[in-house]
Amino acid sequence: MTIERKPILTLQNICKSFGQTEVLHGIDLEVYSGEVVALLGENGAGKSTTSNIIAGGFHQSSGDMTWLGESYSPNSPREAINSGLVLIHQELRLLEHLSIAENVFIGRWPSKLGMISRKEMEARAQAQIKRLGLNIPASSLVRGLSTANQQLIEIAKALALDAKLLILDEPTAALGGAETELLFEQIKRLKEDGVGIIYISHRLEEIRKVADRLVVMRDGNTVEKFDSGDVPVRTIVESMVGRDLNQMFPLIPVPKEETGIEVKHLSSPNGAFQDINFSVKKGEIFGIAGLIGAGRTEMVRAITGADPIATGQVFLNGKDVTPKTPTRSIENGVVLVPEDRKLQGLVLDHSIEDNIAYANLSTISKLGFISPSRIKDYAKTAIERFGVKGVGGQNADEMSGGNQQKVILAKWLAKDPKVVVLDEPTRGIDVGARSSIYEIIVELANKGIAVIVVSSDLEEVLGISNRIMVMAEGKMTGILDRQNANDVSVMELATAFG
């Protein structure tokens, strides 16, 4: 007689609306104990919304969930945690000035006779981190621990709550190869202990190593389920985007003859970059490559007025426009889409409309006054132009990374700039959303705008650039034409130290 195996968590026809906009259209999902289910999809597919419904952050508009065979509908993250379901966010939320044990038991410290029992707390925390293979005293401060170890401490917090299901949201985003393998080893241990795991990641190659099953989402729908994690990456991506991937990068235009921006002998006060010289033609996409610490970000921040310049000049259409402030740079038509979109690019707890308006107040205002209706109309045009998936009144922090990036592009491009600088334009953005960002970049070049793209993704910088400048240790080591640029030639220049 075969005993039927039952899932610990089920989602049936889950729908979710924010105002008049429905973002989930009937999600179905099952998770069994001791297995890893990878939840995949483009930014905006609905993965985060689904996770938040499971973890009590949102409440579904319709549909049913069960947990351990019982009806389940948490009204808060605390209620979900108490039930044994824990969401571990991509952004770690540990308090660095507290010990490991204090972080593991924060808000529920073991006590005897009204006094916190530090001995018991540290013993119980030690047991959990030992379970994950960490040989660090639980009394140690979190400050100074590696990102990988902090990730494991977040998991230890969940296990101390007797979690039976973990939702890991981009757990390897900040990890290197060795640290990722360490995490995978701990996931294997958790599976052996019967813990169910929902695993969300854009790193599709690692999915094949860690997942038992795959669930693919697209535009708020469950579109594909695979009974194995060993699925070709191309098959996964085509399921995510709903089309064949014949060409990742669009055809890039031929630049005009006129120079758009020119940088001469640029150096920083702190030595982050020295004696940088290059020019970008109108309609050219100029890539900047290099290893971490090469000075790429510091350099583009300087030419857009965000960081100081020690020596050198910036010219626009032959005119000296060397900036001292970001405001002056923007007035001259040179704008920056920064590396950290959440901290530097958007006001996350404000609406899409407001974020677009903040950069365009002089255009939107009439006789010094700004009406809500003008903001709505202005933002609506920008949202439609760049294919932002969202409504104007929606907060920026409710959007996927790809759509947040489109909002940043929308707010600056509404000013009709002459030069657009994009620092890591697709970091943390999935394959499908990347292609739409590339199409926007090409659209800018087609309009005669000089485009500068800084990227750590070698395939990206090779695929989207007319020319590539390579930097190493703050110095430019060469500029390659498209026909002479490949992964070998770029890496040779990127490692040309001294």
Automatic annotation (TrEMBL):
Q: What is its main location?
A: membrane
Q: Report the InterPro entries cross-referenced here.
A: AAA+_ATPase (IPR003593), ABC_carbohydrate_import_ATPase (IPR050107), ABC_transporter-like_ATP-bd (IPR003439), ABC_transporter-like_CS (IPR017871), P-loop_NTPase (IPR027417)
Which EC numbers does the record give?
3.6.3.17
Going by the record, the broad EC class of this enzyme is: hydrolase
The molecular function GO annotations come to: ATP binding; ATP hydrolysis activity
- Which parts of the sequence belong to the ABC transporter domain? 9-244, 249-498
Q: Where in the cell is it found?
A: Cell membrane
Keywords from the named record: ATP-binding, Cell membrane, Hydrolase, Membrane, Nucleotide-binding, Repeat, Sugar transport, Translocase, Transport
Matching Pfam families: ABC_tran (PF00005)
Tell me how this protein sits in the membrane.
Peripheral membrane protein
Membrane-spanning ranges: none
GO CC terms for this protein?
plasma membrane
Name listed for the protein in its UniProt record: Monosaccharide-transporting ATPase
Organism annotation = Marinomonas posidonica (strain CECT 7376 / NCIMB 14433 / IVIA-Po-181)
